[in-house]
Design a protein that fits this description.
One of its GO terms (biological process) is epigenetic regulation of gene expression. Pfam families: Hist_deacetyl. One of its GO terms (cellular component) is histone deacetylase complex. Keywords: Chromatin regulator, Hydrolase, Repressor. This protein has two domains: 303 residues, Histone deacetylase domain (Arginase, Chain A, 3-Layer(aba) Sandwich), CATH 3.40.800; 73 residues, no CATH class. Helices cover 41% and strands 12% of the residues. The protein contains 14 helices and ten strands. It has a seven-stranded parallel beta sheet with strand order 1-2-10-6-3-4-5, sandwiched between helices. A three-stranded antiparallel beta sheet has the order 7-8-9, with helices on one face. Helix 6 packs across helix 7. The chain is globular, with a radius of gyration of 21 Å. The two termini are 35 Å apart. The N terminus is likely disordered. Bound molecules: zinc ion (ZN). Zinc ion binds next to loops.
Amino acid sequence: MSTMASSSTGVSSSTDSETLRRNRILSSKLYFDVPLSKLPLIYSPSYNIQFLGIEKLHPFDSSKWGRICRFLIVDGVLDKNRIVEPPEATKDDLLVVHSESYLNSLKSSVNVSIIVEVPPVALLPNFLVQQKVLHPFRKQVGGSILAAKLAKERGWAINVGGGFHHCSGDKGGGFCVYADISLCIQYAFTRLNISRVMIIDLDAHQGNGHEKDFSRDRRVYILDIYNPGIYPLDYEARRYISQKVEVVSGTETEEYLTKLDEALKVAGRMFDPELVVYNAGTDILDGDPLGRLKLLELYIMRVQLDTVAFSFAQTNPYCTFEFHTSLELSKNPEFLLSSLHHQIRMDWCGSSVPRTSEYSFSLPLVKISPDGITARDEKVFRFAHERNVPLLMLTSGGYMKSSARIIADSIVNLSKKGLIDTLGSTGKV
Ligand SMILES: [Zn+2]
């Protein structure tokens, strides 16, 4: 992290803050020249969060990014020497979108634990949280930002990570600590001479982070297809979506793809983008082995929450915890499995500002098949390809054990269909 003082206090006019932002972007080291021997496929082993088994405490596969690459290498569509490793986003890079006070709030392990939804993180010293949790995310942010430059140069780019669409400049949540989408677009505006960007957000959840950040920015068109009945339920941010398509729980592949076709047609009529940012979350997948596995994870999570609550109550007598569970998790597994959405709400009372965190567990919500994911990605890439518009893809949400395989399969399909060229002009892997 940069130690350069970069306080924005005292900057009163928007012109000054615009100049400051511009200078930060222009002096950033995230845009570096990538030789043609490399592919526009961005990944670093440090994307993966693995630390003292913490990764097992979240019902997420926090090493899916590495597994995607391994599958691609085994399948023969990727040579690991041709992967681009991004630099880590520094504090100055993050300040392009984030407020100083938000970044400072991440010096509290409790705050980070709420954002990443892993309660035990609250108990770790912050230097470990920085190193083991936030560093991987900052590398992924570096990847998302670089992806725009590579997409402009090569026509396409994939960051095998990123897509933290719930985070805005001043607020994180839902596993999203940094607003990589907003950052990537601001860099593209300044460094790539681009003035019209389309975000196609097909993660199951609403992308409230970028929606808030670009609420008044007409240079950005947002198509968001999401399930309206689940996290983040951000009604204010919904007003900033240019084209919103709501898919209710239980929507199946054919209906979903038809809606996507229609939405892309409308988007293409309404807006002429110079860059497409595709947030390709795979949490719309039908839930396969989710059933029993998920149930076990819910039990584990419940124990974790109780443990954290207990230790907080012990160390701070003014701190009381209340758990509101929308479902009685332990009593009725059948109801649990058939239900579509579960939240454990954890209210942190007794400190100066009460904080509320939602722990969301998604059971099958939108029931898209693996082939449906492949078809979906192909449609979006084709949309950009036909218009000759550069596209960058971020993998975003979807952390079931099966997600990595499905994402890899979809990338293989894009390569087979000639929508991306993973073998490069030199041909040989
Ligand atoms: Zn999601």
